[in-house]
Amino acid sequence: MSAAPKHAPTMAKASVMERLGPWLPMLLVPVIMVLGLLAIPSTSSWLTLTVSGLAMGMMIFIMASGMTLVFGLMDVINFGHGVFISVGAFVGVSVLLVLSGMTGAPSLMLNLLAILLAIIAAAIATGALGWAFERVIVKPVYGAHLKQILVTMGGLIVVEQLIVVLWGPEEIYILRPESLQGAVTFAGAALEKYRLVAVAVGLALFLGMRYVLRSTKIGLIVRAGVENGEMVEALGYRLRLVFVGVFVAGSALAGLGGVMWGLYQEVITAHMGQQMMILIFIVVIIGGLGSVEGCFIGALLVGLLQNYIAFIEPKAALISNIALMVAILMWRPQGMIPVVKAK
User: Fold this and answer.
1) Main subcellular localization, coarse class (predicted)?
2) Would you say 134 and 246 are in contact if contact means Cβ atoms under 8 Å apart?
3) pLDDT of the residue at 143
């Protein structure tokens, strides 16, 4: 009777690791939360920081999700993505200023309705701007990455200057709607009302996007286009129209995120989108190009780590996101949940 090969346990172990592999990125968020709980002595402080980190992560996800699909589907490096955040913030805040009677009322329904109207206006404006941006600036440089970087950066600068012309160069300070000011107390922790709303909105958008991409025909075409665009076109689908639709939707999501980020910071500037681009690129890269789920997990990791590190060691917070990106890419060079393209 022959003895079992010495490498059999290793093969079994490798098989287990292969089965666990797809789930490991999803475990990183609870792992970071547990490590934060161990490092922060006060449970109430940990809960406050966790909600703040989740809210920040959700808003970054909203702004970055469109860009990761544009990267994955269109192979476009859009350095001008941040301008849709700025335009969305200014349009949304302008609507909120017009609706000051609704935002100043002590009614949660009126306050949420005002924010909804501001978000719709911002999404329409940035979606239209995204369509023009794709037609005029991006379309002529498809497939030329260096030119894409140059022309999209130029587009960013031009639109930022148009914001200055229309709204002025000064920062605009804003107040959140009456019912969303202040905080609620839970388990001894002060949880800002607006951050709780941001978590709910971000989670709803993630679930909605996941449903559209996985359970609808257009979602199937988009996912198939990310993996094998030539095959999708061979089946008779007009992938160029899908390109434009994804670019417009991504621009509208960035505008929506701009409104929420402006209310989060309570100040908006013409350069706020450009300042957010570093975080957005980090999230898109560590999540995996074209992966909405990876973008979601990456955004939550960035938000949580930034808040925990800023509380524990403020100086280290300046490099925490870069360190996270380096660690993730050393572990998985293509990102946490990469979209596998056909060769």
Assistant:
1) membrane
2) no
3) 76
Count the helix, strand and coil residues of the chain and give each as a percent rounded to the nearest 5.
Answer: 80, 5, 20
pTM (two decimals): 0.87
β-strand pairing of 189-192 with 183-186: antiparallel
* Cα–Cα distance, 221 to 303 (Å, whole number): 31
Identify the bridge partners of residue 268 per DSSP, sorted by sequence position.
172
Predicted confidence (pLDDT) per residue in 181-203, tens digit: 888 888 788 888 899 999 999 99
What does the alpha-carbon distance between residue 7 and residue 42 come to, in Å, rounded to a whole number? 48
For residue 223, the tally of other CB atoms under 10 A from its CB is: 18
pLDDT of residue 342: 46
Distance CA 321, CA 308 (A): 12
**φ/ψ of residue 7, rounded to 5:** -90, 5
Residues with Cβ within 8 Å of residue 65, at least 6 apart in sequence: 205, 206, 209, 250, 253, 292, 295, 296
Closest CA to 71 of 157, 132, 126, 145: 145
Q: Which residues of the chain have pLDDT under 50?
A: 1, 8, 11-12, 342-343
